[in-house]
Design goal:
single chain, about 130 residues, alpha+beta, Nuclear Transport Factor 2, Chain: A, six-stranded mixed β-sheet, 6 strands, about 30% helix
C-alpha cells in the first residue's frame, strides 16, 4: 500500500471506487482472502505501455489460479491503468475487465478441482452460490 498516495483513487468497475489507502487495503484483503482471489497465485504483466506524457502505465495482467492438481492453468486477465503522482507514488488505479470471464475461470477451476478431488470448501461454497452445481 505504501506505493499509493494516501488519497489514492482505486476504480474497480465491479466493486466501485475506493478512496484512500485504508479502503483499498480493506478491499484487497477481502478480495484476496476469499475464493476466487485466494486461489490466484501471481499477477504477471502480459504487456504494458508507458505513457510518459500523462504519467500512466497501462498493462494487461494475467490472474492464474493455483494448479487444481493436474497442471491445468486456468486464468482471466484485466487491464490496469495506473497514474503516477511523483516521488515513487501512484494516485489512481483503474482495473477494467469482464466479470463474466472471471466467473467462467472460477467455475472452470472448481469443476476441474471437483473432478480431481481437490475442491476445497471455500471454492465449493462459491461454486454453489454462483450456480456451478447445476
Amino acid at each position: 500500500m505504501a506505493h499509493y498516495t494516501p488519497d489514492v483513487d482505486y476504480i474497480e468497475h465491479a466493486a466501485g471506487t475506493m478512496k484512500g489507502r485504508e479502503q483499498v487495503r480493506d478491499w484487497i484483503r477481502r478480495t484476496m482472502t476469499t475464493f476466487p482471489g485466494s486461489h490466484m497465485v501471481a499477477f504477471p504483466s502480459l504487456w504494458h505501455v508507458i505513457d510518459e506524457e500523462r504519467g500512466r502505465v497501462i498493462c494487461e495482467l494475467d490472474n492464474p489460479m493455483r494448479d487444481p492438481g493436474d497442471g491445468t492453468v486456468i486464468s482471466a486477465t484485466n487491464i490496469s491503468i495506473i497514474s503516477y503522482a511523483g516521488d515513487g507514488l501512484w494516485h489512481r488505479q483503474e482495473d477494467v475487465y469482464n466479470p463474466l470471464r472471471f466467473l467462467k475461470a472460477g467455475m472452470a477451476w472448481c469443476r476441474k478441482a471437483r473432478e480431481l478431488g481437490t475442491l476445497d470448501d471455500a471454492a465449493a461454497d462459491w461454486m454453489r452460490r454462483y450456480g456451478g452445481d447445476r
